[in-house]
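Q: Got one fold?
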Amino acid sequence: MNNSNKNIKAIFLVLLGMTVFAFQDTFIKLISTTTNIYLIYFIRSSIGLILIIFYLKYNKIPIILKTYYPVFTLLRVFLFFTGFSAYYFSLSKLSLPLAVTLFFVSPFFTSIFSMLIIKETIGWRRWSAILVGFVGVYLVMNPDFSNFNIYSLFPVMCAICYSFTVVVQKKTSDKDNIFSQILHIYISAMIFSLIIKLSLLNISFDVQTINEFNSLLIDWNIENIVTFTLLICIGLTGVVGFFALFTAYNIGSPASIAPFEYIIIVWALIIGWFLWGETLDLTGFIGLILIVSAGIYTFIRETSLNKKISIDSPLR
């Protein structure tokens, strides 16, 4: 298969992967007010762990849990878990288009962490793109400081944590392979979720706190067959989405396919409007355009400079 055909196939896989992730976020939002976020995280990780073990066994790939970078690995899995806990929680408080759009500040933080951790040089053009991206985030948040929604910061917090893990993953990938790193994320998410559940068992909260953080404090119950089905779908879509993106980035040119990840924002706008009547206002759309434009420019710029951090990994 020539490079052109590989890129076409990779683009299709990216579109598939991000579409699947859009529906995963939708499923999480649908049950986030009645189902504990950490139960969702636990089941999602459990299904992912089972399926990836089957995949490794089927393809006779060794299952390796050992890491050569224990400190970096612990930091990476903790921040990944923390970041996506914040993101999943934000889905119970924000519109789907807003949460998804704000997450896409990731490439800008990835560039910054690349400079700090692996000493990558960032020129004034990429700094300009980063600045434009942050202006876009500000416009999407459209903050009215007399009535600011603090939860709009949570997807940005997720982007910061995720970007850090991407750079750390790149730093440790010389010895820890991708499947080991995925296993670490799934196993640690299950452990962290259980630790949080056990830690909260004997703590009493007042009614206001319970109402505000219901999706974090609610008991681990599966309300009905619909919730059970959606939990299974969340686990399956997580795995399908990952493998679609992983395969795409293995066979295609990252710079050619990465911009197509923004299709998830289109899906978020469509689904958010169709299910909940949610959308962005005019200021939000202007901010979205700035974020996407700056992100695509960052991908193109990194390609021209042969930088491989922001463009080698999918944004999920």
Notes: The two ends are 27 Å apart (CA to CA). The first helix runs from residue 3 to 31.
